[in-house]
Write a structure and sequence with these properties.
Rossmann fold; seven-stranded mixed beta sheet; alpha/beta
């Protein structure tokens, strides 16, 4: 279940790519399938172990093109253990809403992206998230839960200004290149969960809708694919923002 459009990101075989806050690895796996030199980065050692195991299984099964590489790295989003401009493409999916110092995390992402490189950042979309918060305190007050709700304007502003040094001297100012939405079918599920109780997986409504989502993911029926395309721009649960780092640093006029 991908959130990022990798064609829109401009990913090519051989690109050095970072999945920052990879979680279970869904985007890292797709980048590996596309022939990337992939680093799956997270602070959760257990999840990284599972991601690494699947990287190995993918290679052994012949699911990745020759020359593709993949590895995992544990660390802190506020101090990425990579050199300046090391990556051609970066994905940061459903991560920033969990981080108190989100601006510092964004600055690190900009730092490790090469000039001319591209980045996709996804966060929960404002309207679906506001409804979730209003329906359930438990939804966002859980340990490690969501601590903020972004508007597109707020996040675009934070990212496009992230390359400007604190001393005000000219720096790399990221370019916003486009926006998309994903997982429109998933939004009603979370509204139901928040209404009946986020931990009540056995509630009849939540259980029935979950079966629908499993069917969507596993079988990809055309009717649900069409429904998703209609719902994504209306109530898509995730907002995806695309950025490019300029080839040369911005200079004040």
């Amino acid at each position: 279940m991908l959130t990022v459009d990798f064609d829109r990101l401009g990913m090519k075989p051989g690109d050095r790519v970072l999945d920052m806050g990879c979680g279970a690895g869904r985007h890292a796996f797709e980048m590996y399938r596309r022939g990337g030199d992939v680093v799956a980065f997270d602070m959760d050692v257990d999840e990284l172990a599972g991601v690494k195991d699947l990287f190995v299984a993918m290679k052994e099964a012949g699911e990745v093109p020759e020359g593709a590489e993949a590895d995992v790295k544990e660390g802190d989003a506020l101090a990425l253990p990579f050199g300046d401009g090391e990556f051609d493409r970066i994905v940061c999916a459903e991560v920033l809403e969990h981080i108190w110092n989100d601006v510092d995390a964004i600055k690190e992402l900009v730092r490790v992206l090469r000039p001319g490189g591209t980045m996709a950042i996804t966060v929960p979309r404002w309207l679906p998230e506001v409804v979730n918060w209003k329906l359930s305190q438990e939804y966002h007050n859980a340990p490690g839960g969501h601590i903020r709700i972004y508007t597109d304007h707020e996040l675009i502003d934070k990212v496009t200004k992230a390359g400007t040094p604190n001393d005000g001297t000219p720096g790399d100012v990221m370019e916003f290149t486009g926006k998309g939405y994903a997982h429109g079918l998933h939004t009603p599920y979370w509204w139901i969960k928040c209404a009946v109780g986020v931990n009540k997986d056995d509630h009849p409504l939540a259980k029935a809708y979950h079966k629908l989502l499993v069917w969507e993911i596993m079988k990809q029926p055309k009717a649900l694919q069409l429904a998703g395309k209609v719902l994504d721009p209306m109530i898509g649960k995730s907002m995806v923002l695309y950025f490019r780092k300029p080839e040369t640093p911005a200079v004040d006029a």
